[in-house]
Amino acid sequence: MKKNLLITLVLALIVVTVTGCSTKNEIPSNGTSEEAKFYNASKIAVTYVKSPLNVPSIIEKNKGFFQQHFDEYNLPVEYSNLTTGPEQTQALASGDLQFLNAVGATSVILAASNGSDIKIISMYSRSPKAFMLFANDSQIKTAADLKGKKVAGPKGTILHELLIAYLKTAGLTEKDIEFISLGIPDSQAALVSGEVDAALLAGPAAYNIKKAGNMVLTTGEGLVDATIVVATSQKFYDENKVLVDTYLKAQKFTLDYMRKNYDEIVQITAEETELSIDAVKEMYTMYDFIMEITDKDIEGMKKTEQFLFDNKMIDNHVDITDILIK
């Protein structure tokens, strides 16, 4: 009897020791396949970017869809208000964030070129018409008229790419203007105050400036694809495939909900952005919220990559297929 008791205690000690040394969590038994049985995370940290008019993010957070999906694993969902591409990609690289929910493909390519571990897992939106360049001087009517002028906008973004592409139509480069790197709200304020001659805007800021009578020099149509994506790191994916799959399920669930509840999602978006119902409806038509990555999306990102390289915004080429999650 003593011998059996000793064996039992030894086995119990082994189980405790092995369990204590484990760094991964086992998913609750729910029929999940053996190949995706474990994950290595204590939270889900995701960006919350509502501008230009990121309806899926607004609806998801309002309804708590991500949290509902990750409750299965007892993981809290935390939101980050980092909105610029460089801030987002740096936070992903540091491990502070697990998912970039709405990041410009431009920012992803810039980060990848600099050696960051970043992978695209789905599309977020395409909206070239929603990105605009405004002028506050009636004498500025074409790209050529911007020579020597002050232009404000967020550096290293789709809007920045739009500016360079527009200048190129007149044989100009960024060196021919005075570019001032400012976020969208500050760019709008600088345009209104007359501190700059033109500004790159999108979302509510663009809508309001346009309604106030400022001239739209150009939109992104025909110049940029305005591709917004969802990204994580290869490391996080390799360690947490089941969590990435769950994230994608939550994204799809959100988009399905949007399609079935148009009036509600317009109302929620209007309240969150402080836009009128009519404004949201007008702007909403500019966006394509389909999460599947198409051949056209890949070709568009290849063009953006070449554009960034040609304009010396990246030093190293990036193979777009290499930054898509495998």
TrEMBL record:
<keyword id="KW-0732">Signal</keyword>
<feature type="signal peptide">
    <location>
        <begin position="1"/>
        <end position="20"/>
    </location>
</feature>
<dbReference type="Pfam" id="PF09084">
    <property type="entry name" value="NMT1"/>
</dbReference>
<protein>
    <submittedName>
        <fullName>Sulfonate transport system substrate-binding protein</fullName>
    </submittedName>
</protein>
<feature type="domain" description="Solute-binding protein family 3/N-terminal">
    <location>
        <begin position="41"/>
        <end position="265"/>
    </location>
</feature>
<dbReference type="InterPro" id="IPR015168">
    <property type="entry name" value="SsuA/THI5"/>
</dbReference>
<comment type="similarity">
    <text>Belongs to the bacterial solute-binding protein SsuA/TauA family.</text>
</comment>
<dbReference type="InterPro" id="IPR001638">
    <property type="entry name" value="Solute-binding_3/MltF_N"/>
</dbReference>
